[in-house]
Design brief:
By secondary structure, chain A is α+β, with helices and mostly antiparallel strands. Chain A has 7 helices and 7 strands. Chain A is 48% helix and 18% strand. Chain B has 124 residues and is α/β, with parallel strands linked by helices. Chain B has one domain: Rossmann fold, CATH 3.40.50. In chain B, 41% of the residues lie in helices and 19% in strands. In chain B, helix 2 runs parallel beside helix 3. Chain B is globular and about 35 Å long. The chains are: A alpha+beta (234), B alpha/beta (124). Chains A and B meet through helix 2 and helix 3 of A and helix 1 of B.
């Protein structure tokens, strides 16, 4: 990052996010209430439209979240708060969140982990955000009926998390740029235009802030494996 | 007797949504649209729990907490205050906790149902 961009984002920017989030939150809650039939029974056509509305709101919310995380990384305002984290719990939350997308794309999800998983001392919010971004990319950029493999290996002083897919991969010539802010690989742009190019920038920034490291192996049209090494103790 | 909730939230749409949801769950809820109105409401209404937004006109959430804590009568009632944050900014959350808030929600991260669950937890 250049120095000029490293300055603290103005309070106005945080305020703007606040202003932007409020109507998104009320929209999300209204859609939730309608979907649950709390304002009367809905017919299947209404349900289908409401589900689209709900997912569009979720998308807008995630965009704001990405912009906010980016602003925090750039301004050095991450303030890591380590605590003892149960990884089983983190994974079950993440998997639960993505289950509908996995089912929709008919992916197979495999999760490998040691029998007794030790706890990790880290900031659970950022760990979750890292895994969220990596898994969401895998699901999104793997053609239907793909295979997503998550694994955790516990070593003496660190954990190694992997997220492996057999998706479209990252073109070799562009692999160096993949963690750059706003960068999106050509094949990803062709696939969908709803990415921000911020996900991996955030993943990399958060991983560093947790004392960890991110790297990957990828080959176009074959798949990508992301590795995340996280110290057991922050 | 119904559990009483005071909600201090300046966004009227959000406030009405909480009201609908809490009423459906059998709570008695009173709304205040800024910190000063919240403090005024407490003169005649004694809630079991307070849900407080942070960024508000006139008296914001921090101002509310300061005055609430400084008030000899109110501070003795042990009414838990849950803070609502839009951004989950650590500095804000930390400051609110230092001022006596027992917990916080990041609005974008939770559903209304989860909020009710959390409120119930503090009422046990």
């Amino acid at each position: 990052m250049k120095d000029a961009q490293n300055k603290k984002p103005a309070e106005e920017i945080f305020f703007a996010y606040h202003q932007l989030r409020t109507p998104l939150i009320s929209s999300k809650w209204i859609a939730e209430m309608l979907l649950k039939g709390e304002a009367g029974t809905i017919n299947p056509e209404q349900e289908s439209l409401l589900k689209d509305l709900y997912s569009a709101i979720g998308h807008a919310n995630r965009l704001v979240g990405h912009l906010l995380s980016t602003a925090r990384i750039d301004s050095g305002e991450l303030h890591v708060k380590p605590e003892s984290v149960d990884l089983e719990r983190v994974y079950s939350d993440v998997i639960k969140e993505f289950q509908p997308m996995i089912v929709k794309k008919s992916h197979t999800l495999v999760f490998k982990k040691p029998k007794d998983l030790p706890r990790v001392n880290t900031d659970p919010r950022y760990l979750q955000e890292i895994l969220d971004n990596l898994i969401s990319n895998s699901i999104k950029y793997t053609p239907d009926k793909g295979k997503i493999e998550l694994s955790i290996n516990a070593e003496k002083s660190f954990f190694l998390f992997t997220v492996k897919d057999n998706g479209m991969g990252i073109p070799k010539a562009q692999q160096k740029k993949i963690f750059n802010k706003f960068f999106r690989a050509d094949n990803a742009v062709q696939k969908s235009n709803d990415g921000t190019g911020l996900g991996l920038y955030i993943v990399n920034g958060l991983a560093k802030s947790l004392g960890g490291k991110i790297w990957f192996e990828s080959s176009e049209n074959k798949g990508t494996t992301f590795y995340f090494r996280l110290p057991i103790k922050y | 007797m119904a559990t009483k909730v005071l909600l201090v939230e300046d966004d009227q749409i959000l406030a009405r949504l909480y009201q609908t949801k809490f009423q459906k769950e059998g709570f008695e809820i009173q709304l205040a649209y800024d910190g000063q109105e919240g403090l005024d409401k407490l003169k005649s209404f004694e809630p079991n729990i307070i849900i407080l937004d942070l960024i508000m006109p006139r008296v914001d959430g921090f101002g509310f907490l300061e005055k609430f804590r400084a008030d000899a009568v109110l501070s003795k009632k042990n009414i838990p205050v849950l803070v609502l944050s839009n951004l989950g900014q650590d500095s804000d959350i930390k400051r609110a906790q230092e001022l006596g808030a027992v917990d916080y929600f990041v609005k974008a991260d939770i559903s209304l149902g989860q909020m009710i669950e959390k409120v119930k937890k503090y009422l046990k």
